[in-house]
Amino acid sequence: MEMKFDKYLKLGIGLALSATVLAACGNSDAEEIGEKSSSGVEATGELASMTEEEITLRFASWENPELQQHLAKDFMEKYPNITVELVTVDQENWNDGLTNLANTGSLPDVFWYQGNVDVPIVNGWLGDMTEQWEADPESAEVLTTLQETGYIDNERKMAAAVFYQPFTVFLDENVFNKLNVEMPSQDWKYSEMIDLMKKMTVPEQEIFGYNDYTKLVTMGPIVQADAIGEFGWNGEKFDMTTYWAESMTQQAELVRTGVHAPFFDTDEAEAAFGDRLLWAASTGRIATQLDAWWTKDLFATDEFVDKGIKWVPYPVPQGDNATTSNKPGFVDFGSVSSATEYPREAYELLKFMGWGKDGWNSRLEAYKTLTNDDGSKLFTYPSGLPLTQDQAIWDAVAAELPDNDYYKNYLEYVKEPIPLGGAVIPGFQTFLEEVYFGGEYGDVEAAIIAGTVNASDIAAELTEKLNQYYEEAMAEIF
To answer: The CATH number of the domain where 282 resides is what?
Structure first.
């Protein structure tokens, strides 16, 4: 649940389907499914053979075109009888583009999709890859929190995680040195981060404790409760009366007390920085930036280095009483077309372009070797993190990152991603648009920060509405 406004960064939101999300159909069929094995299909332990016929598979994603070409080339070298055709879809109108392709009978055999999770379900775009997934030994090596995503009605595997970038907390080491404050351990707790933000707010030196793109109100309810989704989602219902209300109240307090930096394009920002359009994280006066993994590339540019800003990555801290390392992440998902003539081969292409180890070895080669026209590297650092638990892959990623303990330690704490609500839970995105950001309170977060409403006073009402949106979406889908 994120809103982005600054000019530097761009949010790419993928979507998925979750077994825990879609299991509660509330009918006799669903109850019968619950009595079967965890998947409803017995694993064969052996994938069916690939065809030896000359075939063509069409593929669409929003990744860098040169990277796609590199991956497709390596896939075709592995399977010489398969031609991969890359399909271009306008990223700004992705679902419309897929809809147009589907309407003309040309939906790609393998594709990523974005937006409201209901769209690909209702439109019937998703193919059933249960047989392949459950016979594939690599499925058991996918990051544990993502293995069960993509099951429809707890029986059919129809989508899988294909790309992952964690929420990341960046600390400006130079600001910490300036204030003579010791950097925390990366094995830190949520309350420790909050306390540090307050401590690092020094008005007499015009230093602010934090700025944000990703939000405390997203992080807190997940890490504090070992949650499997946003806003108190437990797989069947939401509960915004506990950690959501607490985190939102805390977020509002930090804004009102000046711990949070002035917001972009405001009079307060102009007074503080002399430029209302200057991104706070580029001022050298922010101790903590709540952001995303991809921003590491921006922070490595001369603009930040020349200003004496040294942003280093920290994982989102663990909840104070948490037993897991579940943490929010930006996770994109893909599927094979329900209309593909080659479901076995399409599955293999989806895996290669996403979570598969062979595909990741190809990615790592691309990250190291692809260049721009001027000879500079196309990728400063790996753009995403592995979806596999294979330590050799993670070690290879680490070797391409800056050679310091911050990056090495960071990678140890970001292996249990929780996809965002709009990506996995039917009705959630519509609730955000119609109620959370556009209902009777206007923007709920802005209203709470302004003090016109109290989070705890409206939490029960929001919970009821959110659960209603979910139930109505499920009823429509099934």
So the answer is: 3.40.190.10
Q: How far apart are CA 284 and CA 308, in angstroms?
A: 7
Pairing of strands 327-336, 160-172: antiparallel
Which residue type is seen at 416?
E
Report the domain count for the chain. Answer: 2
Spell out a b/e string for 157-183, using b for 16 or more CB atoms within 10 Å of the CB, else e.
bbbbbbbbbbbbbbbbebbbebeeeee
* 230 touches 221 (CB < 8 A): yes
Q: Give the DSSP H or E segment for 86.
A: strand 82-86
Based on the fold, state whether residues 84 and 132 are members of the same structural domain. yes
> Are 322 and 342 in a shared domain?
no
Phi, psi angles (nearest 5°) of residue 133: -60, -45
Q: Same structural domain for residues 42 and 142? A: yes
Reading the block at residue 318, the tokens are 């663990």
d(CA 321, CA 38): 29
Inter-axis angle of helices 243-256 and 216-223, nearest 10: 140
Each residue of 396-424: pLDDT tens digit?
A: 999 999 999 999 999 999 999 999 998 88
Distance CA 471, CA 218 (A): 22
Distance, CA of 162 to chain centre: 11
Average pLDDT, the chain: 89
**How many other C-beta atoms lie within 10 A of the C-beta of residue 445?**
20
At position 353, the amino acid (one-letter code) is M
Of 7, 15, 90, nearest to 430 (Cα)?
15
Q: Are residues 103 and 113 in the same domain?
A: yes
Measured N-to-C along each axis, helices 190-199 and 243-256 cross at an angle, to the nearest 10 degrees, of 10
Q: Clarify whether residues 432 and 387 are in a common domain.
A: no
d(CA 383, CA 46): 32
Helix (H) or strand (E) run with residue 431 in it: helix 428-431
Given 404, 419, 434, the domain boundary residue is: 419
Tally of helices (H runs) and strands (E runs) in the chain: 21, 11
Domain termination site, one of 372, 401, 419: 419
Residues, the chain: 478
User: 78: domain range?
Assistant: 19-164+327-419
pLDDT tens per residue, range 141-167: 999 999 998 887 768 898 999 999 999
How much is the pLDDT for 152? Answer: 74
Place of tokens 């090596």: 141
- What is the pLDDT confidence band of residue 22, given thresholds at 50, 70 and 90? very low
Q: Which two tokens stand for residue 475?
A: 């009823």
CA distance 110 to 344: 11
Rounded CA separation 55/273 (Å): 59
Q: Mind listing the pLDDT tens digit for each residue in 80-92?
A: 999 999 999 999 9
